[in-house]
Amino acid sequence: MSFNGRISALSERLVADNCGVWAVHERAVEQHAKGEDVYLLSVGDPDLATLPSTIRAAIDSLEKGRTHYAPGMGERNLREIISDIEIKASGKHCDPSHVVIFPGATNAIYSVMSCLLNPGEEVIVAEPMYVGYESIFKSINAEVVPVKLDVEQEFNLNIERIKRAVSANTRVVFINTPGNPAGNMISEAQLRELADYCLSQNLWLVCDEVYSMITFDEEHVSLRKAAAKLDNVVIIDGLSKSHAMTGWRLGWTVASTEFSQRLLDFTSSTIFGCCQFVQDAAAFALSNDEEYIQGVREEYRQRRNYVCERVAAIPGISCQVPKAGMFVMIRVDQLAEDGLSFAEDLLKQQKVSVLPGVGFGQSTRHYVRVSLAQPINILKPAFDRIEKYALAQLGQ
Ligand SMILES: Cc1ncc(COP(=O)(O)O)c(C=O)c1O
Q1: Is 215 helix (H, G, I), strand (E, B) or coil?
Q2: Using a 6 Å CB cutoff, which residues line ligand 1?
């Protein structure tokens, strides 16, 4: 007799439906693993190394036996360090009761949204959006209401459009600054206006700030700094990108004491605390990172400048210069029907993989995303190939 058990509707909802977006990347990774001469500009994992002294701090912690259960909200020492950083960034009161530690920002977003949304309730989210959001929102059966950024004007947030999208069923407005994929930044005035509006409508305002330390031309402004009142405000941050620590899985939320307690209840049933030695290493990293972060920022700035200069010199493609983050969005509709066919053909013809913009929403279907998580000595030959491809498409 064959087994006939069902899987849950939740699991069905999460069956990937990504319109072939990752297929290009996965094919390229396979070819690369086989030793083929492929350039992977589709990855979001920093190539930079974790600070060696942070690794040493983790080893020291392990050797001290820090391998047991940790407090549900996170280690007090780490939460104190984060609340001090928050005080500096916002000029507002913050203490460890406002901070909860998670195994990565992804889990923090999932936990926050699980505590804010009932099935069928709406979350408004600015689009193009980070590819991970939609599946998190789907996992809790939330209705996702995408609101387009002004794609042709530096991917700016349009608050009027958000206001028009709010319905009686809306519970959360979710924003991301600096943004993935576009490297856009939401201004202090806009953050304040949105926070005031959300408060007046009894809406939560959640802001993903994981690229807050990778800014090029202006300093990141935290939602907590901009908002006049913090009752309805939650921010999410983490070490994956800024400290090249994707594999350590360390993120956090900053929210009101009351909501942080709700998060504690939720994480107590779903996570039951994060690794002690990872939290010790995170505490070390956040206390000893000034020079390191400057170096990271400078490295990405040089890569961004290089990529934007190359794009400007290649006929048929164009980009807006991102203000922050690890990615450049390139418009390709003069060369291909859309970003997906461009990415597929570029991999086939020139063995360079880029991510089709449709993965971030329909408004960027004519774009591809290039990652800055590769050094210039890889970006250079990769862009030589992109140039060759563009010239061939244009018959030049
Ligand atoms: C905007 C954004 N938020 C969250 C994440 C996930 O971060 P973490 O590795 O901490 O889960 C990413 C990763 O690419 C991201 O780009």
Answers
A1: strand
A2: 44, 104-106, 130, 132, 176, 180, 208, 210, 238, 240, 246, 251
